[in-house]
Specification:
The complex is a heterodimer of chains A (535) and B (327). With 535 residues, chain A is an all-alpha fold. Chain A is built from 15 helices and 2 strands. Classes of the chains: A mainly alpha (535), B alpha+beta (327).
């Protein structure tokens, strides 16, 4: 086996300052990894507390006020500081320039600034948590958030507002990078699908995030200055907030899921040794999801007093946006057909993703359908659905990508067996946690309830038990990765024998990525026709 | 209420089986696709499995006909579900004309219900079996949501405007009633019971009330606010005559029309300049602060009761003795 290369982006300079002042996209990716992991751990602890409280029907573990703060902080931490940045800011930052054959992103200083903005936003939010938390729900619905809540809405709002700029700047940076920094010969239709997914995501980040910033500002103006925007007693309209909020926050779901979908495409191609079936359809489905995603926001508001005719239009458009996701799923399935499937740990996560995303996507049909949505809106059915998409889809995709690129990032290989056990536990624990919640939701259990009628205890016990297994699964996965840092075998440049420029350089890469700028002469995933380099 | 393990809430309204049928259909469709994809990917994993990292897959790039096929099939199925579910939805949101009226106000953290006969209750709603009931409600503070799982109905209570749900209960019994829109500290305690009774028992329950009818309370408020000094019965006043007004369509000064429903009356009383009837000057003052939510439903019930058109006897003569009772 080979030994670690002598000069890498990790050891070229030393000391804290060399990290905090780095302009290397790879180091910035790792900086994001640290902050996002802290936020994930925090959000996970809050999730555990929620499930412990719901183990029994009465509200007997924490007070209702504390419970409300716990689920709000769980949502805020997970949505704004884990799901939105995880794949683009960690994996995207690390992998994108490598995949393009570039030395760095287009604006390296802006990239570092994005991380600092992200950290400042996180500090504000963490400050809100330390000062007693927020109790509005992560959705900050008015008029509760502007007139009634006596929690730290402002601090958390400022945190979300600031963090948004990090997301916008990363989007701009990636978009310019993809347009301007591609290696010679790397035409648009030779790009890895992960790049396409990041491009579509950048579009949403740039167009959508300013709207949530404006909305949070409006909440602050009403709460701080008494301006009547959402509060009906001041002549405002509470439902206006929901339109503005979901105009960003629905597309934000695609910020969360498109990049993991891209990572899944990379892994499926690699571990079935085939090009992705219907490459251009998968690429364009990302773009059409990004565009259609802006036209479905009011499906969060079917019972919020909107006109039945507008509900009808939004229901139709919601069905329409489901089609590109279905197309992606069919293409992934077809990619496996007659592949040479090498079932390593990342592929295990791909299979987990496929199973959970399938359920998450299909249960969306119940919510797109007006006739069933009225009943299940704001129940645990919705909670289960979006966890299947956001955790089952986005986090599984993130973990697939993280396990796929980990040897590139660190130069070390984790224990495949241990990683697979982690993936299996996560899959089983996740289903046990959230599948019962579909049933609870249809039974009528409303979300954000601190206590519930005794007839729903059994399903809640299952769910809490599942959450325990899920937590152990995550810990095991993280443990396997951390273990590899010290004890893992040296990975080599291309442990998966994958195509893609990132695998042509050393692991961990040089500070400037490539010794010389690569020249691309073949399409992505050209497994069938490439010369296999025997290491 | 239910005990034991089950996977469906009780079906206690005429809408419930319709929603459930749609639900089961979508369950069947989604289960089919979930199984199809799952079986295929698991089968492929076994069939094409290899431990040789140098093996390569077949050189397949894609197939346009297949792409079109698996775009078209979900699309057609989606259209079918869309059409069916929209049909169910329009029945959920459109109360039948003859529905019995109940009013409600949500506030942190309780539901108050008022029956037109004057009976009031908190966190309990008594209704007769077999008769359509329409609940018109609003919120006094933040958003709430009136949710009755056994009836499969739900709508947000929004401060400043009216929402409605309607149902025809099909079996007597007690059912959960929840607040489904997060509203703060005791959101999970903003719950209650719907008590569905036989018609005779319901009438007996109504009779236990000592309160005068909502329309009578409304009339007293109407007169104390001197509404009649402008809203003359003969139509020659400074405001439109109110007899026979409810449910009719009026021509507005801005050129559009409006159907006179609870929402329009509410807006006209609190925010009278918004939609003025054509031919009248926008001179009515706002009654914001003078008419609370209880007063509002009284006024609305009173105006509803003025069905018989202009009368020389004055408004009180046309007040039916039993407003809100079945015909």
């Amino acid at each position: 086996m080979t030994t670690q290369p002598t000069t890498t982006y990790l050891n070229v300079t030393h000391g804290l300052a060399s990290w905090l002042l780095t302009k290397d996209h790879k180091r910035i990716g790792l900086l994001y990894l640290v902050v996002v992991s802290i936020a994930f751990a925090l959000g996970g602890v809050f999730a555990g507390l929620i499930r412990l409280e719901l183990l029994t029907p009465p509200g007997d573990m924490v007070t209702s006020d504390l419970y409300n703060r716990i689920f709000t902080m769980h949502g805020v931490a997970m949505v704004f500081f884990v799901l939105i940045p995880a794949v683009p800011a960690i994996l995207g930052n690390f992998v994108l320039p490598l995949q393009l054959g570039a030395k760095d992103v287009a604006f390296p200083k802006l990239n570092l600034l994005s991380w600092y903005i992200f950290v400042i936003g996180f500090i504000f939010t963490a400050f809100a948590m330390v000062m007693g938390g927020v109790d509005t729900g992560w959705t900050f619905y008015t008029p509760y958030s502007t007139t009634a809540s006596n929690s730290n809405v402002m601090a958390a709002g400022v945190g979300v507002f600031i963090t948004g700029f990090s997301s916008i700047l990363t989007g701009v940076n990636f978009m310019v990078t993809i347009h301007r920094m591609r290696a010679p010969g790397l035409t648009w239709f030779r790009l890895p699908l992960f790049v396409w997914a990041l491009y579509a995501t950048s579009l949403v980040q740039i167009l959508g995030t300013p709207v949530v910033a404006i909305t949070v500002l409006m909440v602050a103006m009403e709460r701080g200055l008494g301006l009547g925007i959402f509060d009906p007693t001041l002549g405002g309209d509470p439902v206006l907030f929901q339109h503005l909020f979901w105009f960003y926050s629905h597309p934000a779901v695609y910020i969360m899921i498109l990049p993991p979908m891209g990572a899944i495409s990379e892994c499926i191609a690699c571990f079935s040794r085939k090009t992705v079936f219907g490459y251009s359809f998968v690429a364009f489905s990302s773009l059409s999801i990004a565009v259609f995603g802006f036209l479905v926001w009011a499906h969060h508001m079917f019972v919020a007093g909107i006109s039945p005719y507008s509900a009808m239009v939004f229901s139709f458009l919601t069905f329409a946006v489901a089609i590109p996701s279905a197309v992606k799923t069919f293409n992934w399935t077809a990619t496996l057909y007659r592949g040479a499937i090498w079932f390593k740990a990342p592929m295990m996560y791909v299979y987990g993703f496929l199973g959970l995303f399938l359920i998450g996507g299909l249960t969306g049909l119940f919510l797109a359908s007006l006739g069933t949505d009225v009943h299940i809106h704001d129940t645990y059915f919705v909670v289960a659905h979006f966890h299947y998409i956001m955790v089952g889809g986005a986090i599984m995709g993130y973990l697939a990508g993280l396990h796929f690129w980990w040897p590139k990032m660190t130069g070390r290989m984790y224990s495949d067996g241990l990683a697979k056990v982690g993936a299996a536990l996560i899959f089983i624990g996740f289903n046990l946690t959230f599948f019962p919640q579909f049933i609870l939701g249809y039974m009528g259990m409303p979300r954000r309830y601190h206590m519930y009628p005794p007839e729903w205890e059994m399903l809640n016990v299952l769910s809490t038990g599942g959450a325990g297994i899920l937590g152990i699964g995550y810990l095991l996965a993280v443990g396997a990765l951390l273990w590899s840092l010290k004890y893992g075998a040296v990975a080599g440049d291309n442990p998966w024998h994958a195509t893609g420029l990132e695998w042509t350089t050393q692991s961990p890469p040089l500070p400037e990525n490539f010794v010389e700028t690569p020249i691309v002469t073949e399409p992505a995933y050209n497994y069938a026709h490439r010369e296999i380099k025997v290491v | 209420m239910q005990s034991g393990i089950s996977f469906l809430p009780e079906q206690a309204s005429t809408l419930a089986p319709r929603v459930d049928n749609l639900y089961f259909f979508i369950v069947a469709v989604t289960a089919f696709f979930a199984l199809l994809v799952t079986v295929l990917v698991v089968y492929f994993a076994f069939k094409y499995h290899t431990d040789d990292p140098y093996a390569v897959g077949a050189p397949i790039h894609g197939s346009i006909p297949l792409e079109l096929f698996w775009t078209a099939v979900p699309f057609v199925i989606a259209i079918f579900i869309f059409a069916w579910s929209t049909n169910v939805y329009f029945d959920i949101v459109r109360p039948p004309d003859q529905a019995m009226q109940v009013y409600s106000v949500g506030k942190r953290w309780m539901w108050k219900f008022q029956h037109p006969s004057g009976q009031r209750e908190i966190n309990e709603l008594h209704v007769p079996v077999g008769r359509p009931v329409k609940v018109t409600f609003t919120s006094e503070d933040v958003l709430h949501d009136l949710f009755i799982p056994a009836f499969r109905v739900k709508a947000d209570a929004i401060p400043g405007r009216y929402s409605t749900i309607w149902f025809t209960a099909t079996q007597t019994g007690e059912y959960h009633l929840f607040c489904a829109e997060y509203c703060g500290t005791k959101h999970a305690g903003m719950i209650g019971r719907v008590i569905v009774m036989e018609e005779t028992a319901y009438q007996a329950w109504l009779d236990t009330s000592q309160e005068s009818s909502l329309a009578a309370q409304g009339q007293a408020l109407y007169e104390s606010l001197s509404c009649q000094s402008c809203h003359l019965n003969d139509g020659n006043g400074r405001g439109p005559a109110l007899h026979g007004l409810f449910g009719s369509e009026v021509q507005l000064a801005n050129g559009t029309t409006a159907t006179v429903d609870e929402g329009y009356l509410r807006e006209s009383i609190l925010n009278s300049q918004m939609r003025v009837v054509a031919g009248y000057n926008p001179i009515m003052p706002t009654f914001q602060g003078l008419v609370d939510e209880d007063g509002m439903v009284g006024l609305i019930e009173y105006i509803k009761s003025l069905r018989t058109g202009p009368s020389s006897e004055g408004a009180s003569a046309s007040l039916p003795a039993e407003a809100g009772e079945p015909e």
